[in-house]
Specification:
Distance between the termini: 85 Å
Order of helices and strands: HHHHHHHHEEEHHHHHH
Radius of gyration: 24 Å
Largest sheet: 3 strands, antiparallel
Helix content: 40-55%
Number of strands: 3
Strand content: under 5%
Number of helices: 14
């Protein structure tokens, strides 16, 4: 018997996400979690069940008629529950809004099972745009030097060079295969299975050659051979790569607060922009679907602004 069975319409939607919309398995799991929580909560409210017992509710029995009766007010009540009782941040609630909007749009537009979409007017919580956290050049140099300490690993060095030179995501790095390399070009599979090609500069090529000549661990899994193979002969996971970054951060003596592979991506993007990369080129390299996402890297450090203002010709003191 299936553990925690789901309504058929929900399972159909999740299949649609991956097969038609091209969403990743990770995104699918996030949407599944959000919808499961919503249906648990909604049925608890409708049947006056203690909120502490919502996980025990069987949501597989929910019908299209019950889904038709869901209102915008029901969705607001769910968002309040997520904020007040589950302490969800604005970004976590924004993802739940995106899930609900996508689900009800599918049920109405693709399946035509409801006449009114209750999520159409559901607003996304306002999320304050934060500046990306990154390493400056001195910190990055110290980090790179730290890779060479305590037994240099050509594989780890190559992975870090790919992060810092190409700005790729950790999930993209884990998915790379030996066939992803064609001469000096690397084929990357990004979000939504979108493919892009990036150029491998001299630093990446040298690191890659050193890694390949060092004697890779034989791959013991199935399918295509990963470009980066763990000591166990398996494909890397995001968590394992994050541990390697954490280890290098420590052994380098840098001890940068909460340094992650994603912050290496931020570092790469920021340094490329400072070196003169235009926004459109940066958008392609990073694999952003919207240029608005890339524009977070156009920030200028406060010290640079201060320097500009201090050197203004009209900065004259009597």
């Amino acid at each position: 018997m299936q553990k925690n069975p789901k309504p058929k319409i929900m399972k159909d939607f999740l299949v649609y996400l991956t097969t038609i919309k091209g969403k990743s398995q990770r995104t699918r799991k996030e949407y599944e979690y959000d919808l499961t929580l919503f249906f648990h909560f909604h049925l608890a409210m409708q049947n006056d069940i203690d909120i502490a017992q919502i996980n025990e509710i069987n949501i597989a029995t929910i019908t299209i008629e019950e889904i038709r009766d869901i209102t915008l007010e029901d969705l607001y009540l769910f968002m309040e529950y997520c904020e007040v009782q589950r302490n969800n941040s604005a970004s976590a609630r924004a993802r739940k809004v995106a899930t609900l909007k996508s689900f009800f749009k599918y049920v109405k537009g693709k399946r035509r099972l409801i006449e009114e979409n209750p999520a159409e007017e559901l607003e996304t919580p306002k999320i304050g745009r934060r500046k990306p956290i990154y390493m400056n050049m001195d910190e990055a140099t110290q980090f790179i030097e730290g890779i060479q300490l305590h037994g240099a690993s050509p594989r780890n060095y190559c992975m870090m060079m790919f992060f810092l030179n190409l700005g790729i995501r950790v999930s993209e790095l884990c998915q790379l295969n030996t066939s992803s390399i064609q001469g000096r070009y690397l084929t990357v599979i990004g979000k939504g299975n979108k493919e892009r090609t990036v150029y491998l500069n001299d630093s990446c090529m040298q690191a890659l050659n050193n890694y390949e000549q060092s004697g890779k661990t034989p791959f013991k899994g199935e399918g295509e051979e990963p470009l980066f193979v763990s000591q166990k002969g398996t494909r890397f996971t995001r968590q394992t790569v994050a541990k390697i970054v954490k280890q290098i951060n420590k052994q380098s003596g840098l001890q940068k607060d909460r340094l992650t592979p994603h912050k290496l991506r931020h570092t790469s993007a920021t340094m490329m922009y400072k070196a003169g990369a235009d926004i459109r080129s940066l958008q392609h390299i990073l694999g952003h679907s919207s240029v608005a996402t890339t524009q977070i890297y156009t920030h200028i450090e406060d010290e640079q602004l201060q320097h500009v203002l201090e050197n203004n010709p009209f900065n004259i003191v009597d």
